[in-house]
């Protein structure tokens, strides 16, 4: 019999008549309830430990991929402190670190939004102004002022954009 099934068994039998002892049934049901409550409590604790461990493992994975970027920043800072380092050498090094960091973002699933020329989407874009344009259709993104990022289907930060307005409209832009 499983923990969720109830068995009704006669406690006393006298001839044709069967009587059920309600006290023993109540005691058995209370014991099953206590066991179920203890099992559920253990399950909640185990799930919390598993969730914490998964969070730590995820953070560890991300940090281990980010450490080489930090190492290269440290090398760039050391190179900048040298008297014979020129600006072009630092620029090349910082560009390499920038590429390495962008690669890291791609590896962990973060995508940069590319809104220029696309229809304005208030779910992905934050309009900072409207500017008249004959090159880009009205209601489309004319220029990006701050990059936006997505993590899978989740928006991390909307792109700040300037939206193209109607060149024939008279009066103040919206």
Folded structure, characterized:
This protein has 174 residues and is an alpha+beta fold. It folds into two domains: 22-108, Hemagglutinin Ectodomain, Chain B, CATH 3.90.20; 112-165, Head domain of nucleotide exchange factor GrpE (Nucleotide Exchange Factor Grpe, Chain A, domain 2), CATH 2.30.22.10. Helix content is 47%, strand content 21%. It contains two helices and eight strands. It has helices at residues 22-81, 87-107, and strands spanning 12-14, 17-19, 110-112, 125-132, 141-146, 149-151, 154-157, 159-165. A three-stranded antiparallel sheet has the order 3-6-7. It has a three-stranded mixed sheet with strand order 4-8-5, with no helix packed on it. It has a two-stranded antiparallel ribbon with strand order 1-2. Helix 1 packs antiparallel against helix 2. It is flat and about 95 Å long. It starts with 11 loop residues before the first strand and ends in a 9-residue tail after the last strand. The mean pLDDT is 88.
Topology order in helix (H) and strand (E) letters: EEHHEEEEEE
CATH superfamily of the largest domain: GrpE nucleotide exchange factor, coiled-coil domain
| Residues in β-strands, percent | 15-25%
What level of helicity do the residues show? 40-55%
- CATH fold-type name of the largest domain: Hemagglutinin Ectodomain, Chain B
Q: Termini, distance in Å? A: 72 Å
Gross morphology is: flat
Task: List segments where confidence is low: pLDDT < 50 over at least 5 consecutive residues.
Answer: none
Number of helical stretches of at least 4 residues = 2
Strand order of the largest sheet: 3-6-7
Mean pLDDT: 88
CATH class of the largest domain: Alpha Beta
Computed structural class: alpha+beta
Report the sheet with the most strands, covering strand number, pairing sense and barrel closure: 3 strands, antiparallel
CATH architecture of the largest domain: Alpha-Beta Complex
- What integer value in Å does the Rg equal? 33 Å
């Amino acid at each position: 019999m499983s923990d969720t099934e109830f068995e009704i068994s006669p406690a006393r039998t006298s001839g044709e008549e069967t009587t059920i002892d309600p006290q023993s049934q109540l005691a058995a049901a209370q014991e099953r309830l206590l066991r179920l409550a203890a099992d559920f409590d253990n399950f909640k604790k185990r799930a919390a430990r598993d969730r914490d461990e998964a969070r730590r493992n995820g953070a560890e994975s991300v940090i281990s991929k980010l450490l080489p970027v930090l190492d290269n920043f440290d090398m760039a800072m050391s190179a900048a402190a040298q008297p014979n380092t020129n600006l072009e050498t630092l620029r090349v090094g910082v560009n390499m670190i920038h590429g390495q960091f962008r690669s890291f973002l791609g590896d962990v699933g973060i995508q940069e939004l590319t809104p220029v020329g696309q229809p304005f989407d208030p779910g992905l874009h934050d309009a900072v102004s409207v500017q008249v344009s004959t090159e880009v259709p009205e209601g489309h993104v004319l220029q990006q002022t701050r990059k936006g990022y997505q993590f899978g289907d989740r928006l991390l930060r909307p792109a700040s954009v300037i939206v193209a307005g109607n060149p024939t409209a008279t009066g103040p832009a919206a």
